[in-house]
Amino acid sequence: MKRFLLYIIPAILLFCSCSTDDIQTFGEEHEIYFAKYFKDEAYPGTAKADSTLVTFFFADDDDECVYGDLIVYLSGRQLERDLHFSLRVVEDMTTAQPEEYTLADSYTFRALPLAEGATVFQDTIHIQLNRSSRLASLQDGYRLTLEIVPNDEVGVGPYERSRAVLRIMQDPVQPEWWTREVSSTLMGDYSPKKYKTFLQNVEGAERLDGVLISQHPDQALKLVRQFKQWLLENPTYEEDGVTLMTVNV
Q1: Which residues, including other chains, have CB under 8 Å from residue 238's CB and lie 6 or more apart?
Q2: pLDDT computed for residue 12 by the predictor
């Protein structure tokens, strides 16, 4: 019995020592990366490259800039204090001119608690895009690609998510949630002017998206009916100046 204990006690001590070291290492190191993939994932190959669309269409005429929102994730133990990191431009993947954007000296990943139901720590940073006279003449807009710069506080996560691509457009792109079904049962045919008019004149209109439509259709219907009432009181024409703007509720 004594011989058995002599064997098992060193084994327990070794296991505890390794486990403690692993936890400490994991807790001290953090890696930051973007929510979207800037290139297709090599393995397992299920995630596809995606970009963040930014438009000046909804900005007021005197707005000199708009902001592109980028979601960032953080691996490691929950932060006890805010973490700071910087970004740099990937020149060979960028068509934006230097005066068309302004990068901050550093960006902050806030020490927020893990949201209920979430499986990863996340925050959002805001990239300043400056108004440019040439944008109106660029049908496909221009592109700004940024990459995370590692520092003493934080490393960089998977390569496919170490960069973010922003596409800056003059006109908005039709939201993914504005499907054929949404056109036929709620909002009618999509047009940039209709979307802008809806957002500018219906309180809470920015809440209308795919989640609201599928999970809270009554709230989505209420927003569209408010838009319908506004259009009845304020007849508005589409961009052709002939077609009266309507919705299908």
Answers
A1: 191, 193, 194, 244, 245
A2: 41
